[in-house]
Amino acid sequence: MMYLPLVSNKSPNIQQKPFLSSIFAEKFDLLNNGLIFVIYIMTLYKRKMEKYVCNLCGYIYDPAEGDPENGIAPGTPFEDIPDTWTCPACGVGKEHFEVFR
Ligand SMILES: [Zn+2]
Question: What are phi and psi of 38, to 5 degrees?
């Protein structure tokens, strides 16, 4: 099936296209889309992996580390922590945390 265009006269345009440049165009397109995708993922990742700081005691929640002692697995974004979770240092709720910059 793959070699059909070579013997088919239904698609004569294929042979007239500058072969190399069409390959380049294709690769460039892939590269372009790939880059956009990577940037999109990085943006998502960055947003999700923001650290949060406790307003009361200064404890910093790092999503990369999580809070395993309190059942929060490493890699858990702050948004995904259950509302029942409290600051491991001073015991206040999530509402007392803000994005750490
Ligand atoms: Zn605290």
Answer: -60, -45
C-alpha of residue 99 to centroid of ligand 1, in Å:
14
- Kindly provide the b/e burial profile for residues 62-83, where b requires at least 16 CB atoms within 10 angstroms of the residue's own CB: ebeebbeeeebeeebebeebee
**How many A from CA of 76 to the centre of ligand 1?**
18
How close is the Cα of 47 to the center of ligand 1, in Å? 22
Q: pTM for this one?
A: 0.57
Task: Express each pLDDT in 11-65 by its tens digit.
Answer: 555 556 666 777 777 877 877 888 888 887 777 766 678 999 999 999 999 999 9
